[in-house]
Automatic annotation (TrEMBL), chain A:
Cofactor: Zn(2+)
Gene3D superfamilies per record: 1.50.10.20
Tagged with keyword Transferase: yes
Protein name per UniProt: Prenyltransferase alpha-alpha toroid domain-containing protein
Species the sequence originates in: Wallemia hederae
GO cellular component: CAAX-protein geranylgeranyltransferase complex
UniProtKB/TrEMBL annotation, chain B:
Protein family (similarity comment): Belongs to the protein prenyltransferase subunit alpha family.
Name the record gives this protein: Protein farnesyltransferase/geranylgeranyltransferase type-1 subunit alpha
UniProt keyword list: Magnesium, Prenyltransferase, Repeat, Transferase
Lineage: Eukaryota, Fungi, Dikarya, Basidiomycota, Wallemiomycotina
Enzyme nomenclature, EC number: 2.5.1.58, 2.5.1.59
Xref: Gene3D superfamilies: Protein prenylyltransferase (1.25.40.120)
Residue intervals passing through the bilayer: none
Pfam family, one: PPTA
Cofactor(s) this protein requires: Mg(2+)
PROSITE patterns, per database record: PFTA
GO molecular function: CAAX-protein geranylgeranyltransferase activity; protein farnesyltransferase activity
Length: 378, 366
């Protein structure tokens, strides 16, 4: 699709007539390639988070079995690396080159163009999705960028200049550490204490300690606990991170969240992204608490039905039925369908995903293989 | 002063003509580039669909912002430029950070900044940055010896130094009025925006209560419980309010009641809406926080009455959470009747049939 075609793209009229039609995989592919080439200007306020938007697009492509052309693939990888800051510039990845500069002088820390922990997490996943060999990844820089964002209470902030910190960034720090196989930038004891501090009276987890529990933050907390638990057992320092009583309380809260699709909080409406967050949280809890792998909690048919009712006639999945799609809800909706694929006909050919890291299984294997090869002594 | 909100392009403005705008250069293969609008006011509303009403930053302002940052200019016109961009893209953390630096370095009026935040927090209710900035302002106003306000050290360095500076020093006694006016602002915002479940707003209110806890008086606490009560009256299903009540009682430790009285309070609310999971979950949390199990005589009796009353009428099913309480309490006691209850729940609540089946197996094995 050309620039002018995209500029004149106006979904309003078509929408009203064709809303009820479920989107086919082809329509979803069109939605994806259109967005990868040029995001509509509605995404302007996300320019600093563009690697994350690109991740949602490319991951969705992997789920439905699409790939980018060889030429684009190389170009995208180069672009992602141009967002990387070297170790001497503070390390990690920026979300885009929106501050206009690719490189900084040796030892210059760009205060107004810092890397962002969330972008570093999605950059690594994107490189895996694009089958990069990771030889250009500045591992020391990545570790440095986690350390610089660590707070004494075990939480993390997105940039060193930003003092806001919460469980979402704890998740990003744990995910990056898992992807590169190195937890040395995390102080496990304080981070565990922070996660436990986010636990609420109903068994969910909140964004910061003592706030209201929510589906996305519960996913972040349980996936982080799962990753930390795996790290500890690799070090032969196995610990029980949740009591049996807590496990049951959280399972109950997760089961309660299904209304047709899933709601993020008690007494709220369903929203496609929670189909992913709640399912992901459940998977992590299963692994953490050694629950039977065949334990099911949810009604997959109803969830699948809800997600498909949020699909737009021109492709893409929205937050709610009758809404416009966006790349985040599209990707998370597809991920959730993939997790429910045994019961959802439309999703049977979808790739399997690893819900803890939120990426398809084959890309994750590729990342692990490359990182392990790089770490082998020459 | 400066025409902040001029429709004229920054590149053409007289007051910025000494700066050369720096365009975004992204190399040959940009990934998912964004179709920047030339100027937000003149966009076709159909184009961006449902998001059309939201203003977006135009290329022109960002080009000038890059030039300002490149020149490291901290000035009133740069402050105006950041406001202009923030109004179009409230999530741009670099722009917010630059704005904070300007205010601190130039020693500008924080009260005026807070006033501006009144407007921006209403408009960009769901922006993390706007609430974070508001916190910085309140922290500065509430302390005279704030590290943020230090004129000796360059502000960028002070704020950026390390995450340890994330919370300001304790507030001065004299800032009680500030705390009260912030609480009033947030309360009004819930009504003004018709969004009393907004996560950011609640997190901010709880920060205010925590930060100013030591200087708040009993009458302020009393007012907070009145506020909670009015929100529960408005919408008994609002989980955020229940969560906030728990926060005040147990996290801030504002216990103004006994456990028994609080149980009675919740039961009276459950009487109004017997299937409301928010109040049932609160009740479970309440007992747990007091190291009590589910086998509380008063609650068991209440749940049994509810289940019986509803089962007796033909068209009404017993409320799931009441029967669930009986089932979970029986399981806690290893009473075999739990299995029967779970199988009943499986019939009544088919969307959770796998969950209830699993619970019935646990009960059998107990």
């Amino acid at each position: 699709m050309t620039f002018s075609e995209i500029s004149s793209f106006s979904p309003t009229n078509v929408m009203i007539k064709e809303m009820a039609k479920p989107a086919t995989a082809t329509q979803n592919s069109k939605f994806l390639s259109r967005h990868l080439q040029l995001l509509p200007s509605a995404y302007e306020s996300n320019d600093t988070a563009r690697l994350t938007l690109a991740f949602f697009i490319v991951e969705a492509m992997a789920i439905v079995g699409e790939s980018v052309t060889e030429e684009s693939r190389r170009g995208y990888i180069d672009y992602i690396y141009s967002c990387q800051l070297t170790h001497s510039n503070g390390g990690g990845f920026r979300g885009s080159l929106s501050m206009g500069k690719q490189r900084y002088d040796q030892n210059e820390i760009p205060t107004y163009d810092p890397s962002n922990l969330t972008m570093t997490y999605t950059a690594i996943l994107l490189l895996g999705l694009l089958r990069d060999d990771f030889t250009r990844l500045d591992m020391a820089g990545v570790l440095q960028s986690i350390r610089d964002r660590r707070h004494p209470d075990g939480s993390f902030s997105p940039t060193p200049t930003n003092s806001e910190s919460d469980i979402r960034l704890v998740y990003c720090a744990c995910a990056i550490s898992t992807l590169i196989g190195d937890f040395s930038a995390i102080d496990v004891a304080s981070t565990l204490a922070y996660i436990h501090g986010c636990r609420t009276y109903d068994g969910s987890y909140s964004q910061i300690p003592n706030a209201e529990g929510q589906g996305g933050t519960t996913y972040c907390a349980l996936a982080s606990l799962e990753m930390i638990s795996k790290h500890l057992s690799q070090q032969n320092r196995q610990q029980e991170l949740l009591s049996q009583e807590d496990v049951h309380c959280t399972l109950r809260w997760l089961a309660q969240r299904q209304v047709d699709g899933f709601q993020g909080r008690t007494n709220k409406d369903s929203d496609t992204c929670y189909s992913f967050w709640i399912r992901g949280a459940f998977n992590s809890l299963k692994s953490l608490a050694n629950l039977p792998t065949d334990l099911h909690l949810f009604d997959d048919e109803q969830d699948g039905h809800f997600i498909i009712s949020c699909a737009h006639a021109l492709g893409g999945i929205a937050k709610y039925p009758d809404e416009f799609p966006d790349v985040l809800h599209n990707c998370l909706g597809l991920s959730a369908l993939s997790m429910a694929q045994n019961r959802v006909e439309q999703a049977q050919s979808f790739s399997h995903i690893n819900s803890t890291l939120n990426v398809d299984v084959s890309s994750l294997e590729h990342i692990h293989t490359c990182i392990n090869t790089l770490k082998e002594p020459l | 002063m400066f025409p902040w909100f001029s429709t004229m392009l920054y590149a053409e403005r007289d007051d910025f003509k000494d700066l050369q705008p720096i365009p975004q250069d992204e190399g040959p293969s940009p990934l998912a580039p964004i179709n920047y609008s030339p100027k937000c006011e003149c966009r076709d509303p159909c184009f961006v669909g449902s998001l059309a009403l939201k203003m977006t930053p135009d290329k022109d302002a960002m080009d000038m912002f890059r030039a300002v940052v490149h020149a490291n200019e901290k000035s009133e016109r740069a402050l105006g430029l950041t406001e202009d961009i923030i109004r179009m893209n409230a999530g741009h953390y670099t722009v917010w950070h630059y704005r904070t630096t300007i205010i601190v370095e130039l020693g500008l009026d924080i009260q005026a900044e807070l006033k501006l935040m009144d407007e921006l927090s209403t408009e960009f209710l769901k922006s993390y940055q706007v609430w974070h900035h508001r916190r910085l302002c309140v922290g500065l106003l509430a302390t005279s010896t704030s590290p943020f306000a230090s004129k000796d050290a360059p502000a960028a360095v002070t704020i950026a130094a390390s995450p340890e500076t994330s919370s300001p020093p304790p507030p001065l006694e004299s800032s009680k009025e500030l705390a009260q006016s912030e609480l009033k602002f947030v309360a009004e915002l819930f009504y003004a925006t018709d969004d009393p479940k907004n996560y950011h707003t609640w997190v901010y209110r709880q920060w205010i209560l925590t930060y100013f806890d030591k200087i708040l008086q009993d009458e302020d606490r009393h007012l907070e419980f009145e506020f909670i009560e009015s929100l529960i009256k408005d919408d008994i299903y609002n989980n955020s309010v229940w969560s906030h009540r728990f926060f005040c009682l147990f996290k801030l430790g504002w216990l103004q009641t006994t456990l028994e009285a609080e149980i009675e309070y919740v039961l009276s609310k459950i009487g109004i809406a017997p299937s409301n999971m928010s109040s049932w979950n609160y009740l479970r949390g309440l007992l747990k926080a007091n190291r009590r199990g589910l086998n509380d005589e008063r609650v068991l009796q209440f749940s049994e009455t509810l289940v019986k009353a509803k089962s007796a009428s033909d068209d009404m099913k017993p409320p799931v959470p009441a029967l669930e309480w009986l089932a979970d309490a029986a399981l806690e006691d290893k009473n075999p009747i739990a299995t029967k209850y779970y199988l009943q729940l499986k019939e009544m609540d088919p969307i959770r049939r796998h969950y209830w089946s699993w619970k019935s197996h646990l009960a059998l094995a107990a």
